[in-house]
From TrEMBL:
Organism of origin: Clastoptera arizonana (Arizona spittle bug)
Binding residue positions for Zn(2+): 255, 259, 361
Alphabetical list of Pfam families matching this protein: Peptidase_M8 (PF01457)
Protein name per the record: Leishmanolysin-like peptidase
Enzyme class: hydrolase
Transmembrane segments: 20-41
Length: 407
């Protein structure tokens, strides 16, 4: 009986030892798993869906082109935020984070980093036309809708308020009998160069991947094609109020704002040189040629050029690799300076991923933690390269003292 008791005790002790070790291993495993998952959640992919030509209102008249061209690009960018009611429906903690910290800091960064030709006049946005049918009359700075304007003018998920809109101008089906329809001229937007309509709706796009926010422009002015209105939607379920995730959230919002201001497939074809001349040829309608497949205006090789890299080694095989390079002047200067290589043709754009990643970001394997790559990682920076691109739009000059170091 005694031996049985001892044996039973030994077995029990061994069993306890195994249990203790198993629990220790389990705790270590959980710790590693949590950290891995946490790391995964800091790597968020941007799925910028560029607006199609039918979603953008072109030709908003602010001032004559010859007046705008002569103006110096020295006005610090002024961004007006307009909240949709959905923003006020966020819970208190999220609203305070977005309203008091994230949006003010993100907007302030770009207001310090970019300068524009000052908008002297009040901005009144154009009304959307039914079926996107628009008439332009020679010598007339305003556009006219065929038969009727849409009842509502949307910018992303947000309805543009009546006080921000021009009067509805229409012509009949033959382009005759043109004039002002039965609507009022809005007060307009004073002391601003760009109006940003912000919503907070849990849309279908919010359920895709780890989407925190997305943004795009919705209207462009007539003289130099600069985007003057855009929208951003914040995905309520993806907004984290954890202090350790603030940096990623803030960088994400800065990133999305830049898509609306100029870094977008839908805007490349509208870039201009430092004198205001288009880098891409225009058709009779005043716009660049439409790329039907991409559903965007096609840019010229003065903006993006396709280059074939010879003898590229992939998985032990030597192949020719086709890359897309941003080849605008200041971008070329910056990428050559960064890599200390005077023969680089340009800065490589992302060619992998879904529609929202390819071409609308810098190539991740080349530029790593640059914030305008397609994957948000820790320690994101907005470098001289990104500021150079914004300057090469022809709409901005950059304050390079705001640039962050890119390793």
């Amino acid at each position: 009986a005694g031996r049985y008791s001892v044996r039973q005790h030994i077995c029990y002790s061994l069993e306890m030892g195994v249990k203790v070790k198993w629990k220790s291993c389990f705790i270590v495993f959980v710790f590693i798993f949590v950290n891995l998952v946490s790391g995964m959640f800091t790597k968020r992919h941007c799925s910028h869906v560029h607006p199609t030509p039918n979603e953008v209102v072109y030709g908003v008249h602010l001032e004559p082109a010859h007046v705008m061209r002569k103006r110096n690009v020295d006005q610090p960018l002024r961004i007006l935020l307009y909240y949709d009611f959905s923003v006020y429906r966020l819970d208190k903690e999220k609203f305070e984070l977005i309203n008091n910290t994230v949006l003010p800091e993100a907007v302030h960064f770009w207001e310090q980093a970019l300068m524009v030709r000052k908008t002297e006049s009040i901005i009144r946005l154009n009304r959307k036309c039914e079926n996107n049918q628009v008439f332009y009359r020679k010598g007339d700075p305003y556009s006219y809708c065929k038969n009727a304007c849409e009842e509502k003018t949307m910018c992303g998920e947000v309805q543009v308020p009546e006080q921000h809109l021009e009067i509805c101008r229409t012509c009949n089906a033959t382009g005759m009998d043109c004039g002002a329809a039965d609507s009022k001229v809005g007060e307009g937007i004073a002391d601003a160069d760009f109006v940003f309509y912000v919503s907070a709706m849990q849309t279908e796009r919010c359920h895709k991947g780890l989407t925190v926010a997305y943004a795009a422009h919705c209207q462009q002015e007539a003289a130099l094609d600069r985007p003057i209105a855009g929208h951003a939607n914040l995905c309520p379920d993806s907004i984290s109020t954890k202090p350790q995730e603030l940096e990623i959230l803030l960088s994400t919002v800065k990133h999305e704002i830049l898509h609306a201001l100029g870094f977008s497939v839908s805007l490349f074809a509208f870039y201009r040189d430092s004198k205001g001349n288009p880098l891409t040829a225009r058709e009779d309608n005043g716009k660049p040629r439409l790329n039907e497949k991409l559903q965007a205006r096609q840019w010229s090789d003065k903006v993006i050029k396709t280059v074939v890299r010879k003898n590229w080694v992939v998985h032990g095989e030597v192949v020719d690799r086709e890359v897309q390079l941003m080849v605008t002047p200041k971008v070329v200067d910056e990428v050559r300076r960064h890599f200390n290589c005077s023969t680089l043709e340009g800065a490589e754009l992302e060619d992998q991923g879904e529609e929202g990643t390819a071409l609308t970001h810098w190539e991740k394997r080349v530029f790593e933690n640059e914030a305008m790559t397609g994957t948000h990682t820790q320690n994101p920076v907005y470098s001289r390269l990104t500021l150079a691109l914004m300057e090469d739009t022809g709409w901005y000059t950059a304050n390079y003292s705001m640039a962050q170091y890119l390793s």
